[in-house]
Amino acid sequence: MKKISVIFCCVFVLGGLRFCYYGSLSRSCIYTENEVPLSAEILSSKVRFIKPAAILRAPEPGYSCLEQMAKIPNQIVQTESARYYPNIKSDLVGADSALELTPIKLIDVTKHGITTMDSGPGPIRHLILQDQSGSLYQAATVSLGINSGDEYLQATGPSGVFILSPETKLTGY
């Protein structure tokens, strides 16, 4: 009887620790992703760089356990933010770049478990873009211009030209 109690306590403690870390007993990833519909205006627009930015040539390391985000090999970040990724190859692009991007989806990434203590649960919205050759890019919408005037992407859609910023309405609702 004592063995069964010890085994039960161990399973209970280990299950509790797993729940605290992952936010679930069944998930093996601290993140979940959810696709959000883009507005018709954003879906029908073309996106270009208007200021220098960096393209990190690797998926976001923490998102390797996510089905969709792990498959996106390029991250667009502000030039200054590239220094936080010293082990990832990056290319600088500017307003003179011929790279034209088409928005294809919006993905919310939510963090779960005790790991949210450092950054909060989110979600963090990621605009997924595709270039002329079919390569995918993601840009966290919170970093589309941390400060006013830092914005580096411009969209041209049916209703005109507009700057993409964290305040830009991207959803269809």
Write a compact overview of the structure shown.
The protein has helices spanning 2-22, 40-43; strands at 31-36, 46-49, 53-56, 74-78, 90-93, 102-111, 124-130, 136-140, 153-157, 160-164.
Written description of the protein model:
This protein has 173 residues and is α+β, with helices and mostly antiparallel strands. It has one domain (29-164). The protein has helices at residues 2-22, 40-43; strands at 31-36, 46-49, 53-56, 74-78, 90-93, 102-111, 124-130, 136-140, 153-157, 160-164. The longest helix has 21 residues, at 2-22. The mean pLDDT is 84.
Output the helix-strand order.
Answer: HEHEEEEEEEEE
Distance between the termini: 58 Å
Number of strands: 10
Radius of gyration: 20 Å
User: What would you call the shape?
Assistant: elongated
Helix content: 10-25%
Strand order of the largest sheet: 1-6-7-8-4-3-5
Judged by helices, strands and strand pairing, the structural class is alpha+beta
Strand and helix layout:
Elements: H1 2-22, E1 31-36, H2 40-43, E2 46-49, E3 53-56, E4 74-78, E5 90-93, E6 102-111, E7 124-130, E8 136-140, E9 153-157, E10 160-164
Properties at a glance:
173 residues, alpha+beta, three-stranded antiparallel sheet, 32% strand, elongated
